[in-house]
């Protein structure tokens, strides 16, 4: 694939979607006259941890909105587990295992951590709550109101609310934003544990260093276009890409 720099980056992300969990094929999305996504093609295979980076306004959140059915693609096609997601309602998509977090902090104020997790499962899956509380070390704060939790804990509550819905693909929108270095390391290592537990992960981040360390594969968006994709090492070998996108 040709990157904006003119350099060629090998790209398993744009190869055929056979066996992939998520296929985004030639997707464009126009919002209020703004072309938020332009002809984006990418695929996510089971078991991957994919990092999506790019400047503000690149279309990263819009991509999540389109693939989770919050916003329709203007043109192009999204396939989830091989089946087209046409006019997919967000809650139906989530029930089928494609679950996201939101860019703002997680959890509804006025509710405890446990109540937020019960809300996310509609009270139907206490075992999932117990498992996720243990995985993300939230058991000690389960009875605390989310507004009394640290930002890092609230970020984890957001991730937990997605995990209790037993995702097959977890989309994380800026899970490290607003955190200090210590909390970034803590949340990063918990994301790694979630991935190691068998969940396919795709995360949007502005923390390039941690994303490069965590991800199997990276996708770079800029002004709605996919400008590069490849392993962290492949991207880093391209001087122009490295200069434009990989230095924080
Ligand atoms: N509802 C909307 N109406 C009009 N334009 C929108 C809307 N939502 C997003 N946009 C525009 O679409 C473009 C992509 O926005 P998006 O939020 O996807 O970027 P992003 O890569 O997530 O940025 P950030 O890193 O700041 O979160 C931007 O130009 C944004 O202003
Ligand atoms: Mg965003």
Automatic annotation (TrEMBL):
GO cellular component: plasma membrane
InterPro entries: AAA+_ATPase (IPR003593), ABC_AA/LPS_Transport (IPR051120), ABC_transporter-like_ATP-bd (IPR003439), P-loop_NTPase (IPR027417)
SMART domains given in the database record: AAA
PROSITE patterns xref list: ABC_TRANSPORTER_2 (PS50893)
Gene Ontology MF annotations: ATP binding; ATP hydrolysis activity
Residue stretches making up the ABC transporter domain: 22-248
UniProt entry keywords in alphabetical sequence: ATP-binding, Nucleotide-binding, Transport
Organism domain of life: Bacteria
The name this protein goes by in its record: ABC transporter ATP-binding protein
């Amino acid at each position: 694939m040709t990157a904006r720099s003119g350099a060629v980056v090998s790209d398993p992300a744009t190869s055929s979607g056979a066996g992939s969990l998520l296929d985004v094929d030639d997707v464009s999305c126009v919002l209020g006259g703004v072309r938020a996504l332009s002809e984006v093609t990418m695929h996510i295979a089971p078991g991957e941890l994919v990092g999506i980076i790019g400047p503000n306004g690149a279309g990263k959140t819009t991509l999540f909105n389109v693939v989770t059915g919050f916003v329709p693609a203007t043109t192009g096609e999204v396939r989830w587990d091989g089946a087209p997601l046409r006019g997919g309602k967000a809650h139906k998509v989530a029930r089928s295992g494609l679950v996201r977090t939101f860019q703002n902090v997680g959890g509804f104020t006025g509710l405890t951590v446990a109540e937020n997790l019960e809300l996310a499962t509609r009270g139907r899956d206490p075992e999932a709550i117990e498992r996720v509380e243990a995985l993300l070390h939230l058991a000690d704060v389960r009875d605390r109101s989310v507004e009394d939790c640290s930002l890092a804990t609230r970020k984890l509550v957001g991730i937990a609310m997605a995990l209790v819905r037993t995702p097959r693909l977890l989309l994380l929108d800026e899970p490290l934003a607003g955190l200090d270095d210590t909390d970034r390391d803590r949340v990063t290592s918990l994301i790694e544990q979630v991935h190691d537990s068998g969940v396919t992960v795709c995360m949007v981040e502005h923390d390039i260093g941690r994303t490069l360390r965590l991800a199997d594969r990276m996708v770079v968006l800029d002004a709605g276009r996919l400008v590069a994709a490849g392993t962290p090492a492949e991207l880093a070998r391209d001087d122009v890409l490295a200069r434009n996108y990989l230095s924080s």
